[in-house]
């Protein structure tokens, strides 16, 4: 017996209802476990960042492979807050911290394009605006995390990077291209860690 138009509509409606129910269950589960998950996730982010910094020389040495090989170039680095702005404007506070996930290729390219401090790779650029501009730069020197910060009132901050470069940093965030949730599994730096730590 062949199915009629309404039979197909009902089958599709049933499947759609299952999808809606599953999405609702996921939302409830994410909300119920958010605190615990976020704590574990942040801890892993810190471990990943420290491992990456300790092994940065390896990535720089084999930069050509990480920027040209399609498989390696698509590894996602998600433990760096590359760009953050905050401050007061007209008496109202604002802040923009991007949930940054960037490919290793784009990260290495940004460093080549000048996202550096005195030639050292920047892994965090924070800009706070109120009366003046305070800038804090986190960078890697000799496989160690270093921080420099200055606060300039009403004059140009010497640590300020060109807007064109900061625009590249914002655009390199893969969130502009793909949506990755923190709970999803994707190809991270663990791919390389599993090889180097053997």
Report what the structure shows.
The termini are far apart. It contains seven helices and eight strands. Strands 2, 3, 5, 6, 7 and 8 form a six-stranded mixed sheet that branches. A hairpin with a 2-residue loop joins strand 5 (116-117) and strand 6 (120-130). The mean pLDDT is 88. The longest helix has 50 residues, at 5-54. It has one domain. It is α+β, with helices and mostly antiparallel strands and 198 residues long. The radius of gyration is 22 Å and the shape is globular.
Question: Helices, strands, pairings?
Answer:
Layout: H1 5-54, H2 56-61, H3 63-68, H4 70-73, E1 76-77, E2 83-89, E3 92-97, E4 102-103, H5 104-112, E5 116-117, E6 120-130, E7 132-141, E8 144-153, H6 163-172, H7 190-196
Parallel strand pairs: 2-6
Antiparallel strand pairs: 1-4, 2-3, 5-6, 6-7, 7-8
Distance between the termini: 60 Å
List segments where confidence is low: pLDDT < 50 over at least 5 consecutive residues: none
Helix content: 40-55%
Which shape, going by the Cα principal axes? globular
β-strand percent reads 25-35%
**Into how many domains do the coordinates divide?**
1
| Count of extended strands | 8
Please report the number of helical segments.
7
SSE order in H/E notation?
A: HHHHEEEEHEEEEHH
Largest sheet features: 6 strands, mixed
Mean of all residue-level pLDDT scores = 88
In terms of structural class, how would the helical and strand content be classed?
A: alpha+beta
* Computed CA radius of gyration, to the nearest angstrom: 22 Å
